[in-house]
Amino acid sequence: MTTDIRIRAFRAIDDPDTCLKFINGHRRVLSIYGIENITTNTDEWMYNPSIFVVAVESLDGEKLFGGCRLQAADGVHPLPMEEAVGKLDGRIYDLVQWNAQYGTGELSGLWNSKEVAGLGVGSLFPSRVIVAIASQIGIKTMLSLCSPTTVRFNQWLGSRVLTDIGDNGTFYYPKIDLIATAVILDDVQNLSNTHPREREKMIFLRNNPKCVIEEKSPFKNVHIKVHYDLEIKSAKRGEFIIPIEKKLLSK
Questions:
Q1: C-alpha distances in angstroms, 121 versus 17, 56, 80, 115, 163?
Q2: How far apart are CA 97 and CA 100, in angstroms?
Q3: Higher pLDDT, 166 or 221
């Protein structure tokens, strides 16, 4: 079985129509699990120039199967992790501020529809792409608040658990019966702690933002022809370098 999809990256404010599809699709998935209080479960982020979107879609762009977002720390808007766990552990603010002087951001809003569940299309593939496009934006480190399922993906990508916040990096979020784990990718540029297989794929995508690759699902014997379109024309390296003396949004 081979199927064709497109994975596309863009700044949120450059494509409001796809952002609306993303919001509606994400909300449908969250509602299945009875989750309503995700901090980014609003439409406000689509107007934020510090947010970049990875969309997994049909070749004609009519159907959206999933995706994720990269929000750069800009000194104005709090990262999703700050909003999610800041009241539980204020150390997250200092951690973000320190990393922002070199360029940091957060992978968030990861979701996929039932149509592609278990293929890696809505989870692993867009996570790889987020890391690959980070160099276009000048991001040096990347945070994420992971579900138990996606912790292993982030470890493959080279992330480590942030054991100095929360309970050894874990929080009860977004519900008291769910656990989220805070992780950080310390070396977005060189990917020194990344699994060799994943590093090779992400470096290739970084150097070849427009390409077509026949990918194999990491979980099923399914081949997927992925049409990557990852060049973000409005991206500017160094746009999100925030000097340490400039305070990020107040606690």
A1: 21, 7, 23, 10, 29
A2: 5
A3: 166
Instruction: Report yes or no on 242 lying in a domain.
Output: no
From the list 9, 184, 43, 206, the residue with the least C-alpha distance to 100 is 184
Rg (CA), the chain: 17
Structural element, H or E, at residue 99: helix 91-100
Q: Residues of 114-124 as b/e, b for ≥16 C-beta within 10 angstroms?
A: eebeebbbbbb
Compute the mean pLDDT over every residue in the chain, rounded to the nearest whole number: 89
Assign 224 to helix, strand or coil.
strand
- Return left, alpha or beta for 17; rule: phi > 0 is left, psi -120 to 50 is alpha, else beta: alpha
Q: Looking at residue 15, which CATH number applies to its domain?
A: 3.40.630.30
Cα(22)–Cα(109) distance, rounded to whole angstroms? 9
Residues 129-179: tens digit of each pLDDT: 999 999 999 999 999 999 888 888 889 999 999 999 999 999 988 777 789
Residue 167 lies in a domain: yes
More confident residue, 233 or 41: 233
* 32: in domain: yes
pTM: 0.90
pLDDT range class, residue 35, cuts 50, 70, 90: low
Q: How many domains are contained in the chain?
A: 1
Give residues with Cβ within 8 angstroms of 153, minimum separation 6: 123, 124, 127, 146
- Domain interval for residue 191: 2-229
Residue 251 included in any domain: no
Distance from C-alpha of 213 to C-alpha of 223, rounded to nearest angstrom: 10
CA atoms within 13 A on the CB side of 47: 3
